[in-house]
Amino acid sequence: MNSLPRVRDLLELSYWKLRPGPRNSISDVAGVHVGHTTLVDGKGPLIPGKGPVRTGVTVVVPHGGNLYREKVVSAAHVINGFTKAVGLVQVEELGVIESPIALTNTLNVGLVADGLIEYSIRSNPEIGITAPTVNPVVLECNDGYLNDIQGRHVKQHHVLEALRRASEDFEEGSVGAGTGTIAFGFKGGVGTSSRIVPTALGSYVVGVLVQSNFGRLEDLIVGGVPVGKFLKGSTHSGGSGSINVVVATNAPLTSRQLRRVARRVQSGLARVGGYVYHGSGEVVVAFTTAFRVRHGARELASFSALPDEELNNFFRGVVEAVEEAVLNSMFNSTTMDGRDGRVVHQIPVDRVVELVEKHGAASTNRSGSS
User: Which entry of 98, 140, 171, 282 is annotated as an active-site residue?
Assistant: First the structure.
């Protein structure tokens, strides 16, 4: 993880009712790994196809086995469909994911999908020959304000490199798919958080990872305080952009139940001031590691799922974790320059903490927890 402070290191918000997992990360769901490849190169005027480069790719791997042969139950929810994501139609139809989930920039979707296909074929050479094709899932944000997005600089080998690097411990902030992103007029990026979810049948984990590239400065809320009204950020804060959210859990939930959990992501985005403006794409992919769906199985599939009455704490957990993950993505992102001399600054963390402690309706305090 990063050496920069995360939100919970500085603020303890009293309305967060559920405790985080030991890493406060999507990787608190056992078996889930995350990897990045970060591309930063060049300075000065934009030369389309050449640079400067401020982009990357992030991959979320649901388990360490063969995903094509052992698929995970999943769901997709599109809050706002201004997106060029791929793979969601089949996820919606079949309710399973059979490849790692990748996040990148808008014009790099095809090349990143090619990387996931190559990764799957290397482990399953029968794909497309004696077995069905594979469905790569790629989510995207437009990082063209800082990055030479036409250059499509993320290549197949960068995707494979991110997959090789995937682990339980990974960086947040201006890395991977978050290298060139902007949130609420400040540097956005990759953020994560988790919650332990108690039920009558035992405790489970729900974790989220976000790629934040959305929001207007004047809308930014932290700890219930409209801090954006007191801050000065980048001139590039018109609200257009995107945020992608990956939700993971180890709870035995069906695809229908995962979709219900995914829909609550919007409440977490509203807590930080997300209004789902035109031009912004908000996409959620959710999966559970509780089941493995064997490829080509010809016998009856049998598994037990939690009753719907036990979902309320999952709803709360995902709302809290999304709010915290978005703030982590900003607190852990550093100032980034990009094409044409453009600069997007890190959010002024100390000033934000001061405002929340002064004006917050919820009590806050400095905390050494992580």
Answer: 282
Catalytic residue, from 25, 280, 329, 333: name it: 280
Residue 370 is a catalytic residue: no
Asked if 280 is an active-site residue, the reply is yes
Phi-psi map region of 310: left, alpha, beta (phi>0 left; psi -120 to 50 alpha): alpha
Question: Which one is catalytic: 193, 242, 255, 333?
Answer: 242
> How do residues 68-116 score in pLDDT, each as one tens digit?
999 999 999 999 999 999 999 999 999 999 999 999 999 999 999 999 9
Under the phi-then-psi rule, with left for phi > 0, alpha for psi from -120 to 50, and beta for the rest, what region is 22?
Answer: alpha
Measured distance CA(154)–CA(137) in Å, rounded: 16
Domain 7-296+305-355 superfamily per CATH: L-amino peptidase D-ALA esterase/amidase (3.60.70.12)
CA 272/CA 210 separation, integer angstroms: 13
Mean pLDDT score of the chain: 94
- DSSP H helices, the chain, are 7-10, 88-94, 109-123, 156-165, 255-263, 265-271, 312-331, 349-359
Task: Compute the average pLDDT of residues 225-229.
Answer: 94
Give Cβ neighbours of residue 297 (< 8 Å, ≥ 6 apart): none
